[in-house]
Each structure stands twice: as C-alpha cells, then as structure tokens.
Write a structure and sequence with these properties.
about 525 residues, mainly alpha, 5-stranded antiparallel beta sheet, 3-stranded antiparallel beta sheet, about 50% helix
C-alpha cells in the first residue's frame, strides 16, 4: 500500500471556505500586534535591567511598555503621579517607533492576499477588516492593562488614533499585494505621483535644517546630553529616545521652513521671521538646537529654500506629464497634488507634536492646520507656474500640422484657413487629421485653442512646405464602337515541297492583294 500524502488543500474539511480565510487574516492581525508589543517590552525590560536605580519593579516596567506601545500608535498618555498632583499628559509620539506597528499591520494584510495556499482568499475589504479586527482585539487588552499603570492611555485619542493607524497600514498592505495600482484617470495618477516627491522633499529639507542646527549648536547639544545621563545605561537609553524622535524633528524643521514654525510652550512660537515669547524647553539634546530669541536674520530666512525646492517638485512632475494636456488641466493637477501634500503634512504635524505636560507645556510642536495650509500655499504659488513653464518647454519640439489640399474648384468653407497655414489663436477651425495619422489622438489636443494640430516634426512637413499632391488616378478608357470582323482570307494554293518549310507571308491588315 502507498501512503496518501497529507494535504490540507485537498481536504475540504481542513481547507474550509472564505470564512476560514477571514479567520486566518484575523489571526495574522493579532500576531502582528503581539510581535510589536513584544518588541517594545524587550526594549523597556532591557533598559530597566540596565538601570542602576529603577523606579519600580518588573510589573511597573511592563505597564510602561504597554503605555509606550499605545503611544507608538498615536494615543496620548496621562501621568498621574506628578509633584503637583495634577495629571500631566504626554502626547508627542515618536514617529520612528510608529514604523514598527505600521509595518507589522502592513505585512499581515499583504501576506493575507499573497499567501501560496490553495483555496479561496478574502476580498480586499474583507482582508483589511479582518486584520484590523484581530489587531484591535489585542490593542483593547493592552489598553485595559495599561490603565492601571503609571502611564494610562487617554480615552479620546486612544479611540481615534490606533484604529486609524491600523486601518491605513492594512490598506497599504492590500494595495501592495494587488500590485500598487494607480488611479485609472491619467490626471489623478499624475497628481499622486507629484505629491510624493513634494512630501519627501519637505521632510528631507526639514531633516537637513535640523542637522545643520545641531552642528551649529554642537557644544550645547553635547552639554545637554552629558547632564541628563551620567552613566552608560542612561546614555544608551537617552540616545535611543533621541533617535526615535529624529523623524519628529524633521517634521518640525519642515514646519519651520514653511513659515508657521512650532510652539515651544504656551505663548512661545519659533518662526523664520521671529522667535516670540519665552520658551519652556525641557533639557533635551534635540531641543538644544533652537534658533535664538528675537527677530530672525539671514540664517533663519534661508530656511525658505526648503519649501521652495519642495514646491518645484510637483510642478516639474506635472509639467512633464502635461505635454499634450491643456494648460487648465495641468494647473488643476498641481492643485490636487498640493492638496494631497498638505493633507499629509497636516497629519504628520498632528502626530509629531502634542503636550509634554500641563501648564506651559500643554502646547508643543507645530500646529497641524497651519502647517498643512502653508504646504498647500507654497505648492500652488510655485508649482502652478513651474508646471506651465515645463509644459511649454516640453512642447517646443512640436510643429503645426498642415491641412490637406482642397480639390480644384471646391469652395472653401467659411472660417477655414488656406492649406499649409495655422489658424490664429481663437480663430478658424480645427483641421481634420490626415489619412495616415494615428486614430487614437487625444481629443484635448484637437480642441486646444493655443496649440491645435501639432505633430512631431519627423513625420509631417513643416508649414512652409507645399502640401503633398493627391495620388494619381487612372482615367477611364473612352468607349469605342464595336468593329466588324475582318473578311475571311481566300484559300492558299498548294506550294511545292521546297516552299513548305518557309512560313507564308502575313496577310495584309486591311484588304488582301489579289492572288497572281
């Protein structure tokens, strides 16, 4: 006997149906949440073990890990055991720490649709919903556990930010699994492609500003680092915290270059034009690289290079794609790209800032709506003229398409132009395409008043060359009356054998000569 191989795909009881696939996605979401929580717990326990003077036991360290895991999802934490007795909120989420749970939820949703197992797979919406449900079930247990610790989660932000982060990450994972498709509309896809480099340019420019400022204030940064941590375990923990906050600093730098700046406590705002108010800055290495108080000077004004360069990116991208578009379509595409970039910057500014305590520390970081509005304004003011200019430059190699020559004697229709010429802007009619041209030419190119009838120079003659002559036609043969058959020739006499080898003379064309 031969043994039958065990195959879960061949067994209908094990294989299941779509409900089994949804259950697998649910489990994947829960496992993703558990992996992220375990990674944060390992880091916190390692810092607790290495600390020479721990404030609490292992239970307090685990409660702290649960609170930090929720903080990594955007939820605010509230510390109750303060010196004043008033609860102190903590709402600055480390953006680098948020990458871990987002990537885990993204991978769980992607693997749900990319699995090699035979059988039905869940739909796109079902995969996102199942992964999110499994993830949030674990998150609900963590919220209950962290509520009894020193850092309890805030109910409002906990109900808002963690579900939004998980749903967005799972949706990106499903989008990756189906091949990252772009919108079918050409203009929407171009706007999406233009918003991404603009956002990356803003964040990269903000990171450059922070790096330059840290190098400028290197001594103050070093002094702040050594004063906060005297032993090596403390220095390592402080260094890890500073590294996780580097993306936050990049968002702050981008908001500073855009113009709105960021708040450093209630009533204190740092902008390129002026540093107003008195900053309530806690001792931290990244905060040692702040601009000086008072009116700004040329080093602060130079930060405007960041949004200027970022606003050129969508204009350049849309201008290259709008070679055959109308000018209005190119401008509207830049507006959509500016809106997408502004919305992304507003979300990042909302997560990168928040309260660091009560009182004067209740406002810390960039204001989200001002940052988003400034990003939209820069992208529109600089991006639209850039897109139109790049579009005109890309069209410089196009040449007008001549009209076909009208047949002789035909009357020209009203409003038409002579063959080989181009109607003036706003006048005349649009010429019809030539017989050999491509049939799928865009309708917007045919209806454009400014640049109607353009074709590459290599395929058609220029405007000053004569139009090609029509193909020659074969004239019909004239009709002739039927000719009578020629008269029959008389019989030939017999010839001697010597003359039989030679052919007889041909008969005359009209009348044969009498036989002699």
């Amino acid at each position: 006997m031969t043994e039958r191989p065990l195959s879960s795909a061949a067994d209908p009881l094990v294989r299941g149906g779509r409900s089994a696939a949804l259950g697998t996605a649910f489990v994947r979401g829960g496992v993703a949440a558990g992996l992220g929580l375990g990674a944060v717990a390992v880091l916190v326990m390692a810092a607790w073990i290495g600390s020479p003077y721990p404030d609490s036991g292992p239970g307090g360290a685990l409660h702290t890990a649960a609170g930090l895991w929720l903080l990594a999802h955007g939820a605010d934490l509230v510390r109750g055991d303060t010196l004043s007795g008033a609860p102190a909120p903590l709402g600055v989420s480390p953006l680098l720490l948020m990458v871990l749970p987002g990537w885990l939820a993204h991978r769980a949703a992607r693997d749900t649709l990319e699995s090699d197992e035979d059988g039905p797979k869940p739909s796109i919406g079902g995969a996102v919903a199942a992964v999110t449900a499994g993830y949030l079930l674990v998150a609900a247990g963590v919220v209950v556990y962290a509520a009894s610790g020193p850092l309890s989660p805030d109910p409002l932000t906990t109900a808002l930010w963690p579900p939004a982060v998980v749903v967005a990450s799972a949706a990106l994972g499903v989008w990756t699994a189906v091949g990252r498709p772009l919108p079918e509309r050409e203009h929407a896809a171009a706007a999406l492609r233009a918003a991404v480099p603009a956002l990356l340019a803003l964040l990269g420019g903000g990171a450059v500003l922070i790096g330059v400022s840290l190098g400028w204030h290197a001594s103050a940064t070093r002094e702040s680092f050594t004063n906060l941590a005297g032993d090596w375990p403390g220095r390592v923990s402080l260094l890890l915290l500073a590294v996780t906050l580097l993306p936050n600093a990049a968002v702050w730098g981008a908001a500073y270059g855009l113009g709105p700046g960021f708040a450093l406590g209630t009533g204190a705002v740092a902008t390129p034009l002026e540093f107003t108010g008195t900053a309530a800055v806690p001792p931290f290495p990244l905060l040692a690289a702040l601009p000086p108080e008072g009116p700004g000077s040329w080093p602060q004004w130079a930060a405007a290079v960041v949004p200027l360069a970022a606003a050129l990116a969508p204009g350049w991208s849309v201008g290259r794609a709008a070679r055959l578009w109308k000018a209005r379509e190119a401008a509207l595409t830049v507006l959509v790209a500016a809106g997408l970039c502004g919305a992304a910057m507003a979300v990042l500014a909302a997560v990168a800032g928040g309260p660091l305590g009560s009182g004067r520390l209740a406002e810390f970081g960039p204001v989200w709506w001002r940052t988003g509005a400034a990003a939209v304004l820069w992208s529109v003011v600089v991006g639209v003229p850039t897109a139109l200019g790049v579009r005109l430059w890309a069209r410089r190699g196009l040449t007008p398409r001549p009209r076909p020559a009208a047949p002789a004697g035909a009357s020209a229709p009203p409003g038409s132009v002579p063959p080989g010429s181009v109607p003036a802007p706003g006048r005349g009619t649009v010429p019809e395409p030539l017989p050999g041209e491509a049939a799928g030419r865009r309708k917007s190119e045919m209806e454009d008043d400014d640049d109607s009838g353009f074709e590459p120079y290599d395929y058609l003659p220029a405007a000053w060359e004569p139009a090609p002559p029509p193909p020659p036609s074969t004239p019909p043969l004239p009709s002739t009356p039927p000719q009578p058959p020629p008269p029959a020739a008389p019989p030939m006499p017999e010839t001697p054998p010597e003359s039989q080898a030679q052919p007889p003379p041909p008969p005359p064309p009209e009348r044969p000569a009498p036989f002699a």
